[in-house]
TrEMBL record:
One of its GO terms (biological process) is DNA transposition. GO terms for molecular function: DNA binding; transposase activity. InterPro entries: IS1634_transpos (IPR047654), RNaseH-like_sf (IPR012337), Transposase_11 (IPR002559). It comes from Koleobacter methoxysyntrophicus. It comes from the Bacteria. This is Transposase IS4-like domain-containing protein. Residues 178-282, 318-502 form the Transposase IS4-like domain.
Amino acid sequence: MFLKKARKTYKGKVYETYALTESYRENGKVKHRHIANLGSLTKEQAQRIKLVLKAKQIEDVFVGHLSDVVAKEHYRFLDVAVLDDIWRQFDLDQYFAELPYAEAMAVNRCLDPKSKIQIQDWTQQTILPRLLRYDFSADSEYSIYRTLDKITDQEVELQKHVYRKCKQLGHTDEKAVFYDITSSYFEGTKCVLAFKGYSRDHRPDRLQITIALVVTPDGYPFYWRVMPGNTQDVTTVEDLLLILKERFGIEECLLVFDRGMVSQNNLEAIAEKKLTYISALDKDEVSGLGLMEAEFQSLVVDERYWRDNLLSLGFNLYDENLVYREHIKGKVRYILAFNRQAYQDQQQNRQERLQKAKSYLAACNNELKHAQKSRNREATARRIENKLRKWNMHKVFVWELEPIAITKKGTGQKIDSFRVVYTINEDKLKQQASLDGITCFVTNEPTDKLPACQVIRYYRRKSKVEDAFRELKDHLHLRPFFLSREKRVRAHVTICVLGYLLLNALEEKLQQQHYQCSAATALEILGKCLLNRIGFKNSESYAESITEVTTQQLEILKELGFEYLISRKYLNQLLEHSTK
């Protein structure tokens, strides 16, 4: 049955009337049977009648009061769909075909980090069960832990797979890789990898693990390793060289790493493997190389002519703030660089630290002078030394604790306390200041293969691996750990690295399109487009549709090349069996 409209013109005026009509066949021909005249109708009245008639014919059309329509469920849709697409670009859907929890955990890390025991419930709030065609709710709560164990068993092959896909997708630079290590602390105490060590989280009171990471110049991680928490930076490089060659087939490589891993043994080991490196020296090492003229500091003080002064000494201009000069000793190149902005910042920072130290010692003396109980010399000295080291003022302040006796008012009790007596070592202060703004890059890559300006550029790109660690800790919630079994701790790190792989790929796509938006912000915007289940109050019937896509969401999808995610074809597959 349908609503048939008829038009009639009378005295130059057009009249529209409606009638209920039904179709039927007679001798193979379609004919219409008149049911009832409805006369003239407004457009709104006609539309309502059409909806009623349609509802009787089509299963997923409902008619009722708008106030009775309710949202029954919401599922994360567009942000999950984007990350799933990137996951598939790296063929991780095939690699983890038997481990659907792997993608669920990695996507969760990017969007809404949960504990492992909560992942099963979280998947039910997303479209992941539909995308993976897997019913997570049917699993036991221990399934995810079995997945973690299997992920660790496959760690080496997974890294090979990721590196191979990075090469195929053009995400590697045949020239260089970036290497660094970090630490992450524990809440528990039972993991065999957990030890106290140098804490980059500023939590020396906690047990920790050490994590090594290698990324491509574009930030794609392909090697990671979990080590005991007391592992020292410099001891990890030689093992890495062997792994790069044997696991990834990297015979020639420019290894870029932080100055904390520079040791003579490491540099010699890299050279023996016929690999090349770029790093930087600690400032204490720079002063011993004799690369700077005696008058250097007097030449950089002048804010107006510092650049001309250094250019006259053979320095080259890198940018408006940085100049450099190359020195070659044997097969090693030292590139001495001076950054005027860093010079000013470090000068100001030193004065601030100096003032903080003075204020702290004054406060200490006031506290010690009014002590209510006797003070322990060793504990007091240790507390002061730790503070001065924190501000890198422990060599500048020459100090000692001078005993004083205090008589407590009212009781006459004698209290042993101290007074901090100090002088400032001006020579040490000047020595520190003499290296303000100075960086010395070091490499064994020949000049004809890599100019000095390129050495600086590569080292500056080292921030890619530092960014990776920052994302792992802050966005992906790498720390703190509540897992205790070694295999599961390793798997947790692997999942976080895979999550970062997805975020980095998304970030790079946005940057390539010069779209002013971070990966995290893009996901937040896309995350507002949900898959919604709607229906009437007190009814089990429902239908599903996505939230109307905003202009901003559509713009992001176009920049990423992911418009198909809101196409009718994609949605039809996703919404299959979406009515009841």
